[in-house]
């Protein structure tokens, strides 16, 4: 057999290639089984870009199902809480075209507030809350954990006494940030920072010049 | 002179002579103090008092919350009159008036004609004599001190605990809790303690005066910190425009350096802005460069401001919490500029009146220095732990900001940048909202010193652009974190619902089987199950296998989550929210595990039952 191969180059080449094909095939097949990725990584990536309000305004019961639907070809523009930025990020990720938002975008982030004296303790809102942000027990007053509330609106509908308001999220000084200056040709907002002492600057310029030339 | 150098820097006029001439004075006790809960970096303190309660000077009125926080102490003796939102000095005042929760204390002596604003020139100097010269007032200023400690004889934990209880924070301007900084040893090895007395920003002389008056105490504070951090030497960096402070330091060093084990080194630096920037000073004094987005502790250095060391020593040696600070009152609109030691919470207009404010000449009131400070909209805000300087500027002194002109790409900003960044590139990125690129060009290494904006011939407010950009990036990151947290909570809820469902099914199955179980002793009812599952033997074994895999995966997930949580809580750096989030993840993993276990148990119980029912000849499908 070996002699036959040694004599016949073509056969040897075919045998070598065949052998390699079998070996690599086995390796690949094994790797495919062994390193199998659970779940769809694209879905995870899409899910990471969605705002996770779990509001269901897209028509799916939560952000993850919508992410799955997007990966199967659903439109990108069904997420009002995410707004245009989310659409742009999704379009960027998936290489699809960004479409204008389907529905009204939220202008300010909101959170739910329960008017506590009106609450009858029916627990309906607790069952509706997708992130367990409402605290309370049957026949006892409920309240919203503001830090955990995503502002999804889902608790407003089930309330039989309409005691839930969606109010703008109160802004902490730490959350605020400075606006961008208005740009060339205009004065920057004067009260933003103490800025520079123009008269001083003039004199320093002169000093520097004197220093440079003398 | 310094052996090393940092790049860039500028030479703005110092204007320090304005306030450095007058001796350090004690401000009279205010009639009312307003103490904000956020005078420091980190979480706000939590009030411990109620309106109407009487408090003594030095009593804790709000406790620290979380890892990075500091308590607040009553700075006068009196009655808590309100706990409410009040305007406070905050850099974000630019975006609108900033309000924060404050505790307001009305002094006991308010109706006795005290608080008349006479300038006191006695009572400063020796710490022990601090409250002297106030006559009758002394009895009213009823102190509640902690027991004094001898730091040489106390252990580290006691000292750090004391620093924490005293509410000492960095008094240079950032307000980082000192006790947290004192714990640096747990994470980094420190060989050099730097006493940052450079005070490079124009106008400010608070550290200068503190050094002149309390040099011995400050050096003692430095020794205390050298011990706490394990530093082998103390380097004092001071600019050459403070000859009197240098002299005072030299004297204090000569006086008692003989017996000390920690060597002190006094390095006099040429005046240049911003040599007092933490990273710049480290580079100037030790030649070590702090890594990008890193801390000086990573190169074995810790920096402290003289005022902080003084406050730390007072809290340990005298048991006095941080209730006063030295503040520079300066600017051409003041008749008597100078430095005063004032109680925290004193309304700024009282301090300004003390310094002889000419209201008609005042055009802008600035807290902090002219380079990095911010304009205050009103003088009704209180003095807080981080207020080192108040500038009451006239219109001539601080004329209106000129119009911004287009960038001519001259590159002057690049030459001035002390952090070796490319300010011009950052400007374009910030302007265009290209945050990713700005971060790539190390936007977060910008110390916002304003040197680039100072030299810009087009008057571009560069720092404002950077701050806006940083703010937008931070806001976005925060939203992302919040979304991540919401996702974990949502998953946890889903897992819990799944578990509850599985358990309910298991119970239902158990109920259904119970009436059948007693009669079937050995072989009575042959497969009497009316369940539509005849072809499910293979199915079920596959299901069982699948569930077992799921169970193993869930167990692994629980282990991983446990490990993650343990690691993060051990590191001790993470905030409460992050730990919470990890706990939610762990709980989710546990719920998942329980759900799969319940399902498995239900299935197996059913199988055993069936096996029992269908006689011994058949093999159990689950094995």
TrEMBL record, chain A:
GO terms for cellular component: plasma membrane. It is an enzyme of class 7 (translocase). Its cofactor is [4Fe-4S] cluster. [4Fe-4S] cluster 2 binds at residues 119, 122, 125, 159. It comes from the Bacteria. This is Ion-translocating oxidoreductase complex subunit B. The complex is composed of six subunits: RnfA, RnfB, RnfC, RnfD, RnfE and RnfG. Residues 110-139, 140-169 form the 4Fe-4S ferredoxin-type domain. Belongs to the 4Fe4S bacterial-type ferredoxin family. RnfB subfamily. GO terms for molecular function: 4 iron, 4 sulfur cluster binding; electron transfer activity; metal ion binding. One of its GO terms (biological process) is electron transport chain. The keyword Cytoplasm does not apply. Residues 170-190 are annotated as: Disordered. Pfam families: Fer4_21, FeS. [4Fe-4S] cluster 3 binds at residues 129, 149, 152, 155. [4Fe-4S] cluster 1 binds at residues 55, 58, 63, 79. It comes from Modicisalibacter ilicicola DSM 19980. Part of a membrane-bound complex that couples electron transfer with translocation of ions across the membrane.
TrEMBL record, chain B:
It is a peripheral membrane protein. PROSITE patterns: 4FE4S_FER_1, 4FE4S_FER_2. One of its GO terms (biological process) is electron transport chain. It is found in: Cell inner membrane. Residues 495-506, 606-623 have a biased composition (Basic and acidic residues). Binds 2 [4Fe-4S] clusters per subunit. [4Fe-4S] cluster 1 binds at residues 407, 410, 413, 456. Its EC number is 7.-.-.-. Its cofactor is [4Fe-4S] cluster. The keyword Electron transport applies. InterPro entries: 4Fe4S_Fe-S-bd (IPR017896), 4Fe4S_Fe_S_CS (IPR017900), Ion_transpt_RnfC/RsxC (IPR010208), Nuo51_FMN-bd (IPR011538), Nuo51_FMN-bd_sf (IPR037225), RnfC_N (IPR026902), Soluble_ligand-bd (IPR019554). The keyword Protein biosynthesis does not apply. [4Fe-4S] cluster 2 binds at residues 417, 446, 449, 452. This is Ion-translocating oxidoreductase complex subunit C. It comes from Modicisalibacter ilicicola DSM 19980.
